[in-house]
Amino acid sequence: MTKDGAGDRTAAAARDAMMHEIARDVRLVADRLGKDEFDPAVMAALGRVPREAFVPEGRRAAAYVNAPLPIGHGQTISQPFIVAAMTDMLALRAESRVLEIGTGCGYQTAVLAEIAARVYTIEFVAELGESAARRLESLGYTNIAYRTGDGRAGWPEHAPYDAVIVTAAAETPPPALVEQLAPGRRMAIPLGPRREGQELCLLIKGADGQVARRAILPVAFVPLVSGPRCQD
Ligand code: SAH
Question: Which residue among 78, 131, 138, 226 is the active-site one?
């Protein structure tokens, strides 16, 4: 993909440091997560995705800081720890088909695509979705399908999904997404009325279609928008 120059070695070292920080953070919130380490497949995926390729040019130095970063259009690339936590919650397997709402810069999409068989991702802001698609294609990902539009309606043509991940916050889980999740499978979604009161939630759909919900961590995501709005 890239030549093994000094820049790559710096990025690899920074990525290593990020992984150590994530491993430490998992232990700090082990009681909330119900585990003290993430699935090794999730950590391996984070170790393979070049995060510096997903942040704006001027922010490359901060690519591996364990914090969210602005990506334009008032949106942010999620903090690496939260990307790891949400991916882990989905209990993905190599054959999984995943629906992602909120492509953003595509970093979370890449992490999913490293583990799962196929990722269907929907972004509301066309410019963000198109640039994420170009970026992911240039990085060599061939198992991702892209769509522009309101992700709250899901992508019924490819349902049911083995996992659903929503990277913007809603007050309640969008019914179409619950509907398109296969029985026995999981959804990760930030839920809450305001940015201050959100919880990252794990939803598990039972064989009978009933959904069990567990709040995992307090989070602060941008809202899942419900219609065209002014982007800055
Ligand atoms: N996973 C992304 C997160 C980006 S922030 C990343 O790490 O880069 C949330 C994203 O959700 C934004 O790009 C926003 O435009 C998008 N979004 C908000 N509401 C949406 C909706 N109804 N449908 C699809 N995407 C939406």
Answer: 78
Q: Does ligand 1 come within 6 angstroms of the Cβ of 77?
A: yes
Contacts of residue 210, Cβ cutoff 8 Å, sequence gap at least 6:
none
Contact 43, 23 (CB under 8 A): yes
152 lines ligand 1 (CB under 6 A): yes
The tens digit of pLDDT for each residue in 139-164 reads 999 999 999 999 999 999 999 999 99
Domain locations in the chain?
A: 3-219
Q: Identify the three-state secondary structure at position 172.
A: coil
Strand-strand pairing, 161-166 and 97-101: parallel
- Residue spans of alpha helices (H) in the chain: 6-28, 30-33, 40-48, 80-89, 107-115, 126-138, 175-180
Entry pTM: 0.94
Q: Give the tens place of pLDDT for each residue, 51-110.
A: 999 998 888 889 999 888 988 888 889 999 999 999 999 999 999 999 999 999 999 999
Tell me how crowded residue 18 is: count the other CB atoms within 10 A of its CB.
20
**For the domain 3-219, what is the CATH code?**
3.40.50.150
Counts for the chain of helices (H) and strands (E), in that order: 7, 9
pLDDT in tens, 67-80: 889 888 888 899 99
